[in-house]
Write a structure and sequence with these properties.
single chain, about 260 residues, alpha+beta, 2 domains, five-stranded antiparallel sheet, 8 helices, 5 strands, about 55% helix, elongated, MamF_MmsF, membrane, transmembrane helix, DUF3592
Length: about 260
């Protein structure tokens, strides 16, 4: 009996499905669709297995690399390079598939292994292994938030006055603004405080009254009393941690469900 053979179009689509997130704004679509194609065609076309193995290994590996780069300041510089590879590699693999060849993605770690019956489980473990980093980041963000709440509760409120609005020009020629707010400390001394970042339009005018929160024992430790100054950094950290957590947990659950109901 002749062995069933996958059509090149299925192999090509499997590799190109890794690019779906570039055109379809659905979370995890570039992870879930290749797994669906693999599982839906593997019985009729066993030759798709090495293509799926290479593609899924690259998905897990590049996700691992992305998480590691995201949590390191220096690594963020390399993120555009990695995203470029995530775009280029599936195209190369699809071109090779159109020629009847199987292309192994460079830099991919073989998470799935060579045993077909264990590959979905190993894929789930591969994605699940990423949970360690975002869980640590999420717990750290929660601790940071609790410490932030305690610190904010210890501050004393007062009213300051915008003494000046600094301006600068960025590398694109746009003007950025940053106010300087002057307020009086508990001993009558004057202190200055400014927002953490610059903005593209003036948020305050010179002479305008602005709420200020300061440490009674260290008035130089002060912030402007606004949501962005109090919560923006903590919120960004929590959201990023939750997103990375989802990117590792949801694909793992999906792989385990598919394995459970696969014939």
């Amino acid at each position: 009996m002749s062995q069933a053979k996958t059509t090149p179009s299925v192999e090509i689509f499997l590799h190109l499905s890794l690019l779906l997130s570039w055109v379809v704004p659905i979370p995890f679509i570039d992870i879930l669709v290749p797994i669906i194609i693999w599982q839906a065609t593997k019985k009729q076309s066993p030759q798709i297995e090495p293509h799926a193995r290479n593609a899924i290994n690259w998905l897990i590996s590049s996700t691992v690399y992305s998480v590691v780069l995201l949590v390191t300041l220096v690594g963020t510089i390399l993120l555009p390079v990695l995203w470029g590879l995530r775009f280029v590699f599936p195209i190369i693999a699809a071109i090779q598939a159109s020629k009847g060849k199987t292309w192994k993605y460079p830099l991919a770690i073989d998470f799935l292994g060579s045993k077909p019956e264990k590959q979905l489980q190993r894929a789930a473990i591969g994605f699940l292994s990423l949970v360690v980093i975002p869980v640590a980041a999420l717990l750290g963000s929660i601790v940071w938030q609790n410490n932030r709440v305690s610190w904010l509760d210890s501050l004393s409120p007062t009213t300051g006055t915008v003494s000046q609005v600094n301006e600068k020009t960025d590398e694109y020629g746009d003007t950025l603004y940053r106010p300087v707010v002057e307020f009086e400390g508990p001993n009558g001394d004057l202190y200055d405080v400014s927002p953490l970042g610059w903005t593209g339009s003036p948020t305050y005018k010179k002479g305008e009254s602005v709420g200020v929160l300061y440490t009674p024992t260290e008035p130089q430790r002060a912030i402007i009393d606004s949501w962005s100054e109090k919560w923006s950094m903590v919120t960004v950290a929590l959201v990023l941690s939750a997103i990375v957590f989802g990117f590792s947990l949801i694909p793992s659950i999906f792989c385990l469900i598919v394995q459970r109901f696969s014939p």
